[in-house]
Specification:
It is built from eight helices and five strands; from the N terminus they run ααβααβαβββααα. It is an alpha/beta fold and 205 residues long. It folds into two domains: 1-138, Tubulin/FtsZ, C-terminal domain (60s Ribosomal Protein L30, Chain: A, 2-Layer Sandwich), CATH 3.30.1330; 143-195. Strands 1, 2, 3, 4 and 5 form a five-stranded mixed beta sheet that branches. α5 (92-105) links the parallel β2 and β3 (107-108). The chain starts with a helix and ends in a 10-residue tail after the last helix.
Length: 205
């Protein structure tokens, strides 16, 4: 994932973008958690011709649940922002079609910009003709945070593994509670973003 994310800074391309260009995916400082999906996920170092020439629908694969790199249905919630970063033999016209189809598949929050950040690097990953990395900032991160909180509460209730951390110099037992509060705050922020209703502006006649 990181190799595809930084490819625009390392190789040439007709529509390259680097990490600084992706800052627009964070609408507010507290809403900075991105979910990612990658196509293709399978990897073959043998340079098998059938693997390299396999015809892929990159957009369909990055939208599939099994290609998500987090256990969260990111595309099922409201999107705050999104990016499609392609590598290899992907014509610019095809990338535009991907963007149009992607926008028709997902739902953006009413107050967010429905535009999709794009990147196109001409150098494909090793052993592949093309690849796509999809980054989304989704309100469904709330579910991911709540699941993490449930797992944390179950373990912390039994003080499981706590002794490993208390042996570390400078670590305090209260740091667990501060971390839990931070996670709860992040879940609340994304929940508020999903339920936010933009007040229409008055039109002056």
């Amino acid at each position: 994932m990181l190799l595809n994310l930084t490819s625009g800074s390392r190789f040439s391309g007709s529509l390259n973008c680097d990490l600084s260009d992706l800052s627009s995916l964070v609408p507010q400082p507290s809403l900075h958690y991105l979910s990612s999906s990658l196509s293709p996920l399978d990897f073959n170092l043998s340079r098998d011709v059938s693997f390299i020439n396999k015809k892929r629908n990159l957009l369909q694969e990055v939208c599939a649940r099994e290609d998500q790199l987090l256990r969260v249905n990111a595309l099922g919630g409201q999107l705050l922002s999104a990016a499609l970063l392609c590598r290899g033999q992907v014509p610019l016209s095809t990338l535009r079609q991907y963007v149009t189809r992607f926008q028709s598949k997902v739902k953006f929050a009413s107050w967010s910009d429905p535009g999709v950040k794009t990147g196109l690097c001409s150098v494909p990953p090793v052993g592949q003709k093309s690849a796509m990395l999809c980054l989304v900032n989704s309100t469904n991160m709330t579910n991911f945070f709540n699941d993490s909180l449930n797992h944390f509460n179950l373990l912390y209730k039994r003080k499981a593994h706590v002794h490993h951390y208390t042996k570390v110099d400078g670590f305090d037992i209260d740091d667990f509670l501060l971390t839990r509060e931070s996670l709860m705050s992040s879940a609340m922020k994304y929940s508020e973003a999903a339920n936010y209703v933009e007040i229409p502006r008055l039109k002056v006649r």
